[in-house]
Amino acid sequence: MKTLTDNWSTYWEGFLGTLSLFAVSAVLSLVLGVLVASFRVSPVRPLRIFGAVWVTILRNTPLTLLFFIVVLGLPRFDITLPFYTFAVLALGCYTSAFVCEAMRSGVNTVPTGQGEAARSLGMSFGQTMGLVVLPQAYRSVVAPIGSVMIALAKNTAIAGSFSVTELLGTYRTINELGYSIVWTFVWIAVGYLIITLTISAVFNLLERRVAVSR
Amino acid sequence: MNRETTLGGPAGESGAPAGARGRRAGKFLLVAALLLAALAAGCGKAGTPPPKGPQPSALPSYQVQDASAITGSPTLDAARNRGHLVVGVKEDQPYLGQKNPATGEYSGFDIEIAKMLGASLGFPPDKIQFKTIASANRETALQNGQVDYYVGTYTINDNRKKLVGFAGPYFVAGQSLLVRKNDNTIHGPEDLDGKTVCSAAGSTPYQRIQSQYPKAKLIGYDTYSACVDNLITGQVDAVTTDNAILLGYAAKVPDELKVVGPLFSTEPYGVGVPKNDTGLRATLNDALEQHEQNGDWKRAFEATLGLSGEPAPAPPQINRY
Amino acid sequence: MTVESSALYDIPGPKALARHRLYGGIALLLIAAVIGWVVYMLFHTEQFTYEKWMAFEYRGVQELLLRGLGNTLKAFGLTVLFALPFGALFAAGRLSDHRAVRWFSTLVVEFFRAMPVLVMIFFVFVALKVQPLWALVTGLVLYNGSVLAEVFRAGVLAVPKGQREAAYALGLRKTQVMAYVLVPQANRAMLPVIISQLVVALKDTSLGFLITYEEFLHAGKLIATNLDYDLPFIPVVMVITPIYIGMCLLLSWLARTVERRSRRSPAAQGGAPVAGAGVATGLPPSAQQ
Hints:
The complex is a heterotrimer. Chain A is an all-alpha fold. In chain A, 80% of the residues lie in helices and 0% in strands. Chain A is flat and about 70 Å long. By secondary structure, chain B is of the alpha/beta class. The longest helix of chain B is centred in the N-terminal third of the chain and has 23 residues. Helix content of chain B is 33%, strand content 19%. The radius of gyration of chain B is 25 Å and the shape is globular. In chain B, a hairpin with a 3-residue loop joins β2 and β3. Classes of the chains: A mainly alpha, B alpha/beta, C mainly alpha. Chains in contact: A-B, A-C, B-C. Chains A and C meet through α3, α4, α5, α6 and α7 of A and α1, α5, α8, α9 and α10 of C.
């Protein structure tokens, strides 16, 4: 307990760092993910190919390598941004590939007849997607997006090794002050549990809400 | 899963018939496997790419002594049974402790110190195995016997003395700053306000900047080579650590980097030994003293760190605590 | 199925086709512009000079990379070796009839699934002072083993109830029902899900880089940040990234092949809904990163 109370400000700073890193990357990944998902089902071939390449590359690259590429690589192209922005870029782009796939499989759960019916009413691609398919897909997308978001929250831990203030990185500071290393990690674990369990609770709630509205 | 009855199915990759996809993947794998096989077959050149920076004409050699009279050191006994010494070092510090990726050979001042101590313990250079140990793992490596002793910019301080023993010091360094050659805004630590400074996360130089120059934006990696890379590409404005380390980097690319400012700390480098092995510690202290007196120490310095333009200092007083 | 028959839009007429072509053209131009900029920057920053690539000519450097790759595969192999029994053990624990065992297994599995794998790795490495390889493997086994436990459990639960009941009716005991009836049927349907989890494990071996395990990425970094080789960072990335992607694609391709085969086989029909069952637990394996 002493480990926690004595280092409360360090922990709190790290906790907030993880939260903000998660929140900003989540927004970026959702925006990018939906965009790329719509590319992947669109009638325009170059966009479809772009979407497929984006997803294939990012899904199969280790996140550590991606961080490495962004932090040491982008400055070579005269792109020097704060480390926090680099971390958000790496996390957001990486997660967007998983968001895209979750969205796409969500769209796949909507019966074909719905799309056909919408079309027979004379709706365009945009209308079919926006008014008919996506609202129905939303229901089956909530759970998988939830687990993608939990994975994102856990992945923020990597940013600590690339000069971003976050929860896992606090162990260094606290360890040097001579506190019990085991307890240091226990409180870090509690911090992550709070975050992941909250996200999972929020998405469970959302899931139940949309399930009722059926 | 059943793509025939889905809405988003036909797009992109998933639209290709499964068989074609499989064949394509197969072809790709074949090519990758061939490339790897070509690599494995060793179609490469032997040797090493030409190193940059000044090179020594020849490395000094140290007379291997008959050390069978030295007893009372469990570490040394274990090494004798094993037939060779295992010495922990750094791998990414030019002119101090650097491993050549192509040949796997280590070179630098720390390596020379390790070799001359090995010679005094009765082990010729080919009976010394070097092992890269990162800063964070040094104490553990000595405690659980992964290495017999450690020579790698290891500052002697009281906290560490609780965990390991130190022979030496064999060199005294001090914290300094490495900046880009064309940067005329940083002359010392007081110019760091608002600048991005990189160091090894959690290291003593890192903590010193944190507590004494809190206005500097501090960046931490696990190695200095990543810091230096970021310095050259402009992602950070300065790298800070002991001058000995920085001088080595600057000597590699003198057109791009320079070491500036006064030394703002004192870092006596010691040889780390297992804490309870006082026999080994005493033996290494004797050996250091002897090599300092017979000129080996100076020759080693001039063949390594001295190439950066730094004249050989007088070796520091051995501290037998 | 061809693109034209998507249910989301009509078969495009001449006007729509022209419009799509216009969009396609604009998209192509934008993509070409980005690629062009990247290529320009690559040349502008002189990434294709001999100096930047010469390191790869030397056998020592090639061997360094191969050794790194070998270490990556070693960590991966050890992870698979221990994670599968770990998963099986805790899946059995969660399906146990004893409440204490069930309770304990659930706690373990849920805890390790909710924790970043890097926290486990660092804990073992820093607090327990374990060697990098074993710290990495321990972390990966705890995490991937827990995810696999959920996969196994879902697989067993997805076998139709009648199978279990029939087996009990024949007088088989609990263990026998599991070993002879449920697991063999669940196995084939689970295989693709298991393999895609292994892709995650393979990618996560690169976390070893952060605790100085000398794996593939570490070897790459050693070359990339070497001043003697003119800091060949971009060349190193160009070499190691395709190899990582290739290895992951190889595994995913294996997963798809197995999936296709098991779908075709009538014997595995019973276990077909496993993928769905995986989603139902809230953590589809594909989303585990």
